[in-house]
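User: I need a structural model of DUF5318 domain-containing protein from Micromonospora haikouensis for a docking pre-check later this week. Nothing fancy, just the predicted structure tokens so I can convert them on my end. Input:
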Amino acid sequence: MRTQRQVVDYSLRKRAVLRELLAGQVGTYDVCDASPYLKNAARFHGEPTEERCPICRSENLTHVHYIYGDELKQSAGQARTLAELPVLAMTLREFQVFVVEVCLGCSWNHLVEQFLLGRDGLAGGAENGSDQGAADASAATAPGAGPAVRRRREAQR
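Assistant: Understood. Predicted structure tokens for DUF5318 domain-containing protein:
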């Protein structure tokens, strides 16, 4: 996705949890605790992967994409399919996406990554789709632009 930015990858945390499980520091019931809502979201809105579950090794994992943002209002916190995200990214200024992997067999679940999407990630003045935004961007980067103009432009992002 063109507007994807500020990506946080949680693979190191996943490895640490699996290491703790193998060492006996945490139990299987502590890590295989997906709620019925998360499992239903994985069933109906999830994207199947080719990766096997690290716990039961019998089923493939499913990725669920949850969206959060001020512009979403009542839609915040909903699971969306991967195909819906680019459409939302062109419609909304900015929203966060959390990707959770789920095993429908043993209820393993873990946060995989988090990132921002939205029109604010587009290059140039296309963030708010108006000529005023382009004028503000050129004024903020002009050689004679003062620090107040640059700070105001950064605050709008």
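Before docking, keep this in mind: The two ends are 19 Å apart (CA to CA).
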